[in-house]
Amino acid sequence: MEFGIVELSRLQFATTAMFHFLFVPLTIGLSIIVACMETVYVMTNRPIWRQMTKFWGALFGINFAIGVATGITMEFQFGMNWSYYSQYVGDIFGAPLAIEGLMAFFLEATFVGLFFFGWDKLSKVQHLMVAWLVAIGSNMSALWILIANGWMQDPVGAAFNPMTMRMEMTDFWAVLFNEVAQAKFVHTVSAGYVTASVFVLGVSAWYLLRDRHVELARRSIAVAAAFGLASAFSVVLLGDESGYNATHSQKMKLAAIEGMWHTEPAPAPITAFGFPDQAARETHYAIHIPYVMGLIGTRSLTTEIPGISELVEQAEVRIRSGMIAYEALLTLRAERDATPQVVKDTFELHSADLGFALLLRKYTDTPHLATEEQIKMAANDTVPTVWPLFWAFRIMAGLGFLFIGTMLYFFYRASFKRMQFPRPALHMAVWMIPAPWIAAEMGWFVAEFGRQPWTVDGVLPTAMSVSALSMTEVAITLAGFVIFYSVLFIVEMGLMLKYIRKGPYLEVAETEAWMKRHEIRLMGRKNADAIAMPAE
User: Fold this and answer.
1) How far apart are CA 391 and CA 410, in angstroms?
2) Which EC class heads this enzyme's classification (predicted)?
3) CA separation (Å) from 235 to 33, 73, 194, 277, 316?
4) What is the pLDDT of residue 199?
5) Where do the H-state alpha helices sit in 432-470?
6) Coil, strand or helix: which one is 220?
7) 483 with 12: CB under 8 angstroms?
8) What φ, ψ does residue 285 adopt, rounded to 5°?
9) Cis amide linkage into residue 267, ω under 30° from 0
10) Positions of the chain with pLDDT lower than 50, given as ranges
11) H or E element: which one contains 125?
12) Closest CA to 32 of 193, 219, 188
């Protein structure tokens, strides 16, 4: 494929979006874990939990600050690189972003300051409320962003206005409660909880391997294992829900993820392994697990899931229907109020397929006059590149099951083995720290790359969404973002590693005094047990 302005703009947005998402899951997850730790502190009044709250809260603060800086540039790009997209669907896409800024981000940003500087100004309960408001704000930010993104995946509650040449919102509640958006939200925040749990687990394991901050590390592992286990199960279950939704809203994405080139008899098998060959439309050396894809995608044993070849044929039908809508649109634009009713009726009948006609703009300036060859090329364009989706999904899913096994093991050791952890397991926990980020990035790659060639699925092709910029302009800004983000990444890693090496130094005297009293109480219990043993 020729590398042009569209591909370069996509590369720039992918770079900034995936870099930004390095910070989002840890922010979402740590905000909840820190709030849970402070809840235990308020309930028990044990200084060790206050120390844990401050330590992990400081790491949350570093990550939050860098994440905010990287998120701003993403929204800047909508107007810079994707101006036609912003103009075409801004009425719908802009509403959730505005609500996110007014409600969630301001809530989060306001109370972050109180969280860090209000320890000596607020009561315990007041500070706990602040911690939970920060956590709620972090998660609400994700909600509104994912509502906007979910609408791009499944554009409900909106209609095209031929007079303004824009998509306009017709049902705010349909956009808000879009099933794709809701499933994506819970799946994404659960992935954030897993990310934070693995991070806390790994850092705590590092402390135990060096025999530092042992009590803090053990308690942190107990919290991370319990929270992470529930979250890991949630990620897998909600991933299943996303597959079910894709069967209705994004059939081509689901078929590409599975390398399903042709419709399989119901219930379709899932492909556990294989090598997709797009040219031959075949997956070589495929290993199938019977029935699983049918159950995930349709919740039945009798409903078929269409394959890529059949979906291309359906796309061709919709392109031809869209050509009729496009021709009627030209008449509507030219004659406006004088447009014959039959033309208006024709447009209404075929308007749902107008986006498919716009796929032809890649090949001709007059889509309603496209040739048969151009129609077939546009239909084939609806197939994303399969092999990256196929493997990215399997990496993500494999890591998801790895997280379940890891969290289950540490939860068992924390709950039933008095928080004694073998050194090989601790080493594994440290080395696993990057794994949830890899899984999260693979998940976003599947979600966004799998939507191609659409910016808004079935409505606006990516090739039409870009701004009228030169390759040089986009390349310069891309280089600038890469340099800027590289600096931020170095700063982030330097601050996080420095703080982790330094350790939870806050309130050390208070915590150590409590630990001495705690050890005396434990010794007393052991002595009492030893005295009681002969009598038994």
Assistant:
1) 29
2) oxidoreductase
3) 17, 28, 8, 30, 36
4) 96
5) 435-449
6) helix
7) no
8) 55, 35
9) yes
10) 1, 533-536
11) helix 124-153
12) 193
Pull the structure tokens for residue 281: 């439309």
Closest CA to 351 of 533, 137, 158, 154: 158
Return the pLDDT at 323: 94
- Asked if residues 255 and 306 have their Cβ atoms less than 8 Å apart, the reply is yes
Question: Measured in whole angstroms, how far is the alpha carbon of residue 43 from the centre of its chain?
Answer: 33
Q: By CB neighbour count within 10 A (0-12 exposed, 13-18 middle, 19+ buried), where does 308 fall?
A: buried
Q: Tokens in use for 43?
A: 């309930």
Residues 228, 204 contacting (CB under 8 angstroms):
no
Q: What is the pTM of this model?
A: 0.89
Looking at residue 515, what is its pLDDT? Answer: 58
Beta strands in 135-281 (DSSP E): 158-161, 166-169, 270-277
Q: How far is Cα 184 from Cα 137, in angstroms, rounded to an integer?
A: 18
Helix (H) or strand (E) holding 71, with range, is: helix 47-80
* Distance from C-alpha of 126 to C-alpha of 131, rounded to nearest angstrom: 9
pLDDT (tens digit, 9 = 90+) per residue, 389-424? 999 999 999 999 999 999 999 999 998 888 888 999
Instruction: Output the six-digit token pair for 343.
Output: 């033309």
Percentage with pLDDT > 90 across the chain: 42
pLDDT at residue 179 in the model:
87
Q: Which H/E stretch holds residue 310?
A: helix 308-335
Q: What angle do CA 373, 447, 377 make, to 5 degrees?
A: 5
Burial pattern 513-522, b for ≥16 Cβ within 10 A else e, equals: ebbeeeeeee
CA distance 88 to 358: 13
